[in-house]
Specification:
The chain has 195 residues and is of the alpha+beta class. The protein is built from five helices and eight strands; from the N terminus they run ββααβββαβαββα.
Length: 195
């Protein structure tokens, strides 16, 4: 469990309470992550058959990469989601669109739960987006979810993303979408002053 001192970002949701983000530790968090990424609800994460050492290796690779970062998100102090950011001019989308300075790629995964909370996933993506935009260098967030992941398309739209076009990645057909701070603020009511 993370202490407040380790938090990189915190946000209070009026309904669901406290959310925070801390650095991911590839060793200490591997078992937790393994349960998340291999869960049936995480099929779009494409790690269904990963072993615990596979997960540890993947997040060690991310931790060592200068253009890719991974974080654990907490709800009321308990691990509840995974967040990744990356430079789309260096990874994932190289050659698939013209990256602009200030573009930040983002992935997120909500942990499986036996007791889902109404509005939780939307609060998570709002927290993730607010955390990414808390960096003043971020001009726009870029995502590339699977074209068939209708649930995440709806969530993305709810926080301000505008779909541009499908792009063929090696592992999937993805829906390239973008969100600026102004679009995020207009869609969510979260303003720059409260980020």
């Amino acid at each position: 469990m993370s202490s407040t001192a380790e938090s990189l970002y915190t946000r209070d949701d009026a309904v669901l309470g406290s959310f925070s983000i801390r650095p991911l530790d590839p060793f200490a968090d591997a078992e937790l992550l393994h349960g998340w990424v291999t869960h049936p609800k995480a099929s779009f994460w494409m790690m269904q058959d990963a072993s615990l050492p596979d997960v540890e290796r993947e997040y060690m690779r991310i931790a060592a990469h200068e253009h890719h970062q991974a974080f654990i998100g907490l709800h009321e102090g308990r691990p509840a989601f995974l967040m990744e950011t990356y430079d789309p001019s260096e990874l994932e989308l190289v050659g698939l669109y013209d990256a602009l300075p200030g573009d930040v790629g983002m992935h997120f995964l909500v942990a499986p739960s036996d007791r889902p909370l109404h509005g939780f996933t939307r609060a998570v993506i709002t927290t993730v987006m607010a955390a990414v935009f808390a960096d003043p260098k971020t001009e726009r967030v870029v995502v590339e979810p699977d074209v068939d992941n209708k649930a995440v398309h709806a969530l993305n739209e709810a926080v301000g993303f505008v779909a541009e076009r499908p792009v063929q990645k090696p592992e999937k057909m993805a829906l390239l979408s973008f969100c600026t701070l102004a679009q995020f603020e207009a869609a969510t009511g979260v303003t720059g002053a409260s980020i």
